[in-house]
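User:
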Amino acid sequence: MIVPSGCPHEVASLVLHGAVIPKFLDLNVFEKIKDISGIELVSPFLVTQLPNHERGRVDIVYGMEMSHLKKIKPAWQIEGLIPEKDDAVIIGSEIASHDNIKIGDTIFYNKKPFKVSAILQKTGSQDDAFIYMPIKALQEIMKKPDRVTAIGVKVYNPQLLTEITEDLSMKIPGIQVVTMGQVIDSLASLASSAKILSLSIAVIVILISAMGVMNSILIAIFERTQEIGMMRAIGASKFDIFRIIIKETVMLTFAGGALGIILSIIGSGITEGFVRSFMSYVPSGRMIAFEPWLAGLCILLSLLVGILSGLYPAWKASRINPIEAIKG
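Assistant: Predicted structure:
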């Protein structure tokens, strides 16, 4: 992918995910790229956001060379006909489902009518939430006849990719060349960082919860000091007291874990409804599903937290002197 100068991985990722970037490439670059040997296909892209006044929202629109579509997206399954004229568009499956759009319907952008000639079948990716328009029509709407957001390049021989990339960088100033492998590595690194951050937050929450449980049990022991002393006085051993406190802590955390699962099941419907009302396009079907094995894992984790949180309070309670406790 050829993108404007800047952070190439960021720009390429934004283009792939339908984001609008402030920089554009001149079509003169397009002609220079075609002159490089070893290149099989050169296809321009223009990505922007257009107001959809009928629906009261903003749509992400991809300008593409429709004659290249089968080579660019060979895995796409399309119902209908690929646009041959500049007054037709392809609608992503999520938009078609959300707005109940059918082939032959008309949508308007900048007061210009566009006929829906095809609907993209569900891909399970962000492609389902885009509008695909002939690039010349989108350039006309944006009043940028010689500008593109990025240029996709396909080479004949992948083994020559490094050589062709260096050739492009040397002969064409003001561009950045990014391979899809580099983009995938960047996205994988970002996903890994997000996963580590999520796990870190979860660990912190568990530690805070454990400290809260421990503090609650310590307060309960302080309030029941005389009771524990009386139990020791009538024959309860230190282990008996230790065992009682551990059981109470486990019961507390088990009840909390079970209640949390119940509340999450109830709240999932509310959360899903909020997301669907807030976002224009969301996946069809249930977004949140109950997994019994995951619920069981959460219960086991609650019990583990309870045992670990109760060790110190139980030890503290077992060390209470019965005579001093009864005296108060």
